Amino acid sequence: MPYLVAADLPQEPAGLRFRELLKQPGILKLPGAHNGMAALQAKAADFEGLYLSGAAMTASMGLPDLGIITVDEVAFFVRQIVRASGLPLLVDADTGYGEALNVMHATRVFEDAGAAALHLEDQILPKKCGHLNDKKIADAHDMAAKVAAAAKARRNLVIIARTDAAASEGLDGAVARAKLYVEAGADAIFPEALNTAEMFRAFAQRMPGVPLLANMTEFGKTPFFTAAEFEAMGYAMVIWPVSSLRVANKAQAELYAAISRDGGTHKLVDRMQTRAELYATIGLHDYEALDSSIVQTIVPSGMPQRK
């Protein structure tokens, strides 16, 4: 059912709902959703929360992940995903779009747009994907000031501090930063680009009592681990940030190649979401039922065949 009737809308603030999910047994699985349709499909697969990746957002806009999009552009993605799914959403806030005051502004905008949580990272601009080389790391106290600013600005939003320091400062440096960020007001920590199970376990052992987030991105520095394996290593949350976009992009590339090669889409119809499946996913008939002035759409029974 679409979230158009007030009684169907979640009544509790998104941040509080995210906190309740963290209290539940087991690791919180947060698949990346790069738009409203992906959010609906993830919800249909019974996920209870979602993740919005900066890399997925920018790639869907035809841009690299260098921290060059704006707060308002991100808020557009937040609104459509939350409106479509109603699920608590963790948002990638990159470096906070500036310094402390900018971070406070972003925090308020994202929470007003419906976000449940955000994470800030301790890189400096131009930032890079956490799994790339030669990342420039911010001063730890400057990052702590950003975390404190976000904590002051939020109402219920969960603040997660991401540290990219393991690559340049080692595990000791990453742990020291994480502890400083928790003191500054972070609710959880995201150690980025750890590359062995031993590193994941060691980091968790040195951060007792602090919820930790693991990043299971493909084609990066982290080997493939399952959600259960991350949970056993001491992690409370896991994200698959760009997976939905990667699959969608691969399928689209194959579609365009087929049209160019074959002069049409006829060889790929069996791989498409049907009209009926699309309407069911977006709840078209539910919308029509809410407005009796709209005649219910009848889905064509099949494609016309060539004579």
TrEMBL record:
Query: Is-annotated flag, keyword Cytoplasm?
Result: no
Signal peptide positions (record):
none
Q: Which cofactor does it need?
A: Mg(2+)
Mind telling me which Gene3D superfamilies this protein's record contains? Phosphoenolpyruvate-binding domains
**Enzyme superclass (EC):** lyase
Q: Which PROSITE patterns match?
A: ISOCITRATE_LYASE
Q: What is its EC number?
A: 4.1.3.30
Q: How does it assemble?
A: Homotetramer; dimer of dimers.
The entry assigns this protein to a family as follows: Belongs to the isocitrate lyase/PEP mutase superfamily. Methylisocitrate lyase family.
- Protein name per its UniProtKB record: Methylisocitrate lyase
